[in-house]
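User: I'm putting together a teaching handout on how multi-component assemblies are represented. Below are the sequence lines for each component of a complex, exactly as they appear in our records. Could you produce the 3D structure of the whole assembly as structure tokens, so the students can see both representations side by side? Please keep the chain order the same as the input.
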Amino acid sequence: MPLPASSGIHRPTLYIGLGLFALAAVTWFDARSMSIRATYGMGADAASYFVAAFIAALGVGHVFAAMKPGIDAGETDWGAVMWIALAMGGLVGSIWIGLGFILGSTLLFALTARAFGRRALPFDLAIGFGLSLMIFLLFNKLLKLSLPSGPLERLF
Amino acid sequence: MDALIQLFDGFALAIAPMNLAFAAIGVLLGTAVGVLPGIGPALTVALLLPVTFKMDPGGSLIMFAGIYYGGMYGGSTTAILLNTPGEAASVVTALEGNKMARKGRGGPALATAAIGSFVAALIATAGLAFLAPILVKIAVKFGPWDYFGLMLIAFVTVSATFGSSPLRGLTSLAIGLWLGLIGIDQLTGQTRLAFGVPNLFDGIEVTTLAVGLFAIGEALFVASRHFYAPEKPIPISGSIWMTRKDWARSWKPWLRGAGIGFPIGALPAGGAEIPTFLSYTTERKLSKHPEEFGHGAIEGVAGPEAANNASAAGSLVPLLTLGLPTSATAAVMLAGFQQYNIQPGPLLFVQHADLVWALIASLFIANVMLLVLNLPLVGLWVQLLKIPLPWLYGGILVFATMGTIAANPSVVELLVLSAFGALGFIMRRYDYPIAPVVVGLILGPMADSQLRRALQMSLGDPMVLLQHPGSATMIVIATVALIAPFVFRGLARFRAEED
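Assistant: Of course. Below is the structure of the complete assembly, with chains in the same order as your input.
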């Protein structure tokens, strides 16, 4: 990742540090809103306060570490990352609207293969379908796990 | 003596034909999944947990033993033939093993790894059977303050002491601790960080976290870096058997590796890769052929592989006797036990003595099966390495999400899984260790409740932690282990400036 050499600040480390501050703040406010108190010793909020303080301290550490040169993440193919995000989205969406496990997993398989550079989408869809069907039959019928059902699953 | 009788009872249970079949299926599945590139033992166990969801505890624990050892063996095969170690502990195996494979000595490299693992695991499992009852007798006397001290040591050593950067290691741990807060507090019923989402009330599942971080995070990382350039396993040419000379050069490293690995693994502290590095440097010093190191020395595979397996079996000691996981794999195993309402710890040896000893007996049996099944089947495992990466990762993601859906069929759980995938991706990109997150998630709430129990017993006086010699000592050790890397780093810099 090309970094602006002039500022001399390692941006990713700085952003992670800022993210840690945000996380600490959320945890702190959550702990403040807790109403159930313990009779002796610490309540449920003590651990939250401790973790919030710990995370904030690490945030400070990151801000200092950002002053020094950090890890170069290298070239990144964001397109591939988007394909995998889309693949996970395909599965989540299928379960959400009730299309069932097999169709969702077929999408997941084919879109993940696309992220790794495959171009033959119809062929991969077919393989994904076969694999998902096999897993469904094995786990739903043989091992009696309940996988989400859609129109396809009800056929079996 | 008592332990020996119980071990025999364990064998009697484990040797039942059905249980032998479970062990065999476990070994085969564990190896098949573990051999896939990018899948370490922790993910292997997490991915295969759903297979045992609906089985009775006895059978599934026995299958577990097989999966655990099979996953470890599969990892070393990948390291040797593909040079892609699935976990930190097999980095050293890849070092010499891959060089051997390139020279056409892949067969002997795999054989010395397999037989060395067998010998080491046999010794370590015997050590486990011997040590566990003694530790249990000590552990029943532990108060909550002692457990809290032990957990502090585990936290620090897993995240800071042995990592490349204490800041990044501690950040990983903090994220794990934060995730551990989510859900309803067991002692007071107070919800923490659930934001009114009912699915979060029960807390974060360890398996969801492990699968998200390891499987989805890894897939995102590999795809983003175009690591999918055709990578072919090195074909095994020549004999797969070891020559007389190979045997002569291997047997001492096996024993030394087991001797280094088991004690370190059995300590209630993190750092599974330490024994492998220690064994490697020891073998290089003791070898009659030091010039071969770096170019495929068989001792460099035999020793570290033995150390790796012995330490993995050793880490079952704190897991079973204290309920204390010290590696990501042990944390996932603990989650597996909890799935059957079995809580590892000293009481386990009283309440479920038959199960524990059947598990230990199964470790012996799985170990033998591994050797008998895997050396002849090595050709099959090599075929698995040839699956094209797009399909491989497609399959891994399908299987990984299936486990999550089967455990908890909800969209929220899948979204949480995806979020962990993104987290794993960022952590890999910027070199944050993954294991402390998993260990933090499972140990954090335990440390919280032990500390609060201690304070309840002392009526809120925090000095209780320092008044008991056991907990005071452990807190001192944890503090030293926390500060040491920063001090040594400062010293090293100081010296560098002087030069």
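A couple of points students might notice: The two ends of chain A are 51 Å apart (CA to CA). Helices of chain A lie at 11-32, 44-65, 78-96, 101-115, 121-142.
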